[in-house]
Design goal:
There is one protein chain. The chain has about 270 residues and is an alpha/beta fold. The protein is built from 10 helices and 9 strands. It has helices spanning about 10-25, 45-55, 70-80, 95-105, 145-150, 165-170, 180-190, 215-220, 225-235, 240-265, and strands at about 1-10, 30-35, 55-65, 85, 90-95, 110-120, 140, 155-160, 195-205. Strands 1, 2, 3, 4, 5, 6, 7, 8 and 9 form a 9-stranded mixed sheet that branches. β1 (about 1-10), α1 (about 10-25) and β2 (about 30-35) form a beta-alpha-beta unit. The longest helix has 25 residues, at about 240-265. The protein is globular, with a radius of gyration of 18 Å.
Length: about 270
């Protein structure tokens, strides 16, 4: 039914929390695939200790460091279940997450891309930053663009996508770069498929000092072609003019960084 996929890089310190949340699931009809993106810490030995416990199916693959997007593409190819759920190595799940997903999947139309749940930001003590970041309705059938720009539902979300569609829409792999925003793929999927948004928080996360969100300026400098691809795409979508202007400014930034990077590499 479900592949839970985790790309990881030097997250030995947080992986055990995620593993415990999977071990405590009320339903265990899932596989956990971990693509280790060239970790230099004790990740391999830690995962091997999880595998020895034999609580559920775990597939571990270590690759050369190539970034999260390449890791996702590899994970989608390794997946053997119908649905694909990306859970980052520094996050974890509600113990009923898999059960809730299964309950919703059985009513999902066959031509829908998948399900989307709320993510819940937590503090160091495990309590939520906000009691509830509601979608406003129990269930909404929509697309990522409409949800964000028309419904104004802006919080982080947990997407569970059909594995076949993940393979149909792989992330671009750009030489010398490691990042393309996930929205680039989710929005493209939304051009051809509907998503079902469920107003339940099943995924817990924290903003870490070395996480992608906190390192945005560094990401755009190191991945200008990937960011340019995303901003160029977003300018062409049906979104408000003020947002297009913001993306245009960032597109110009990306082009500047790309030129600087090309000059350095000559």
């Amino acid at each position: 039914m479900l592949t839970i996929f985790t790309p990881t890089y030097n997250r030995e310190s947080t992986l055990e929390r995620l593993y415990k949340s999977l071990k405590n699931q009320t339903l265990k009809n899932f596989e956990w695939i971990i693509v280790d993106d060239g970790s230099t810490d004790n990740t391999k030995n830690l995962i091997e200790s999880f595998i020895k416990e034999d609580e559920f199916s775990i597939v571990y693959k270590k690759v050369e460091n190539g970034g999260k997007m390449r890791a996702i593409n590899i994970g989608a190819l390794l997946a053997t279940k119908e649905f694909f759920f990306i859970v980052d190595s520094d996050d974890y799940l509600n113990e009923k997450a898999v059960e809730i997903i299964q309950e919703e999947i059985v009513t999902l139309p066959l031509d829908y891309a998948g399900l989307v749940f709320r993510k819940v930001e937590i503090l160091d003590n495990g309590s939520p930053v906000k009691e509830k970041e509601s979608f406003g309705e129990d269930q909404i059938d929509s697309t990522p663009i409409n949800i964000f720009y028309k419904k104004k539902i802006l919080g982080d979300k947990a997407e569970i996508i059909r594995t076949s569609i993940m393979r149909e829409y792989p992330f671009p792999e750009i030489e010398g770069e490691k990042f393309v925003p996930e929205g680039y793929i989710w929005n493209q999927i939304g051009e051809n498929y509907m998503f079902r948004y469920i107003d339940k928080g099943i995924y817990y996360y924290q903003y870490l000092e070395d996480g992608y969100t906190r390192k945005f300026s560094e990401i755009i400098k190191n991945n200008p072609k990937g960011m340019k691809l995303y901003y160029s795409y977003m300018i062409k979508t049906n979104i408000p003019l003020k947002n297009k202007i913001k993306f245009l400014i960032r597109l110009l930034q990306s082009i500047c960084y790309e030129r600087k990077k090309d000059r350095r590499n000559k």
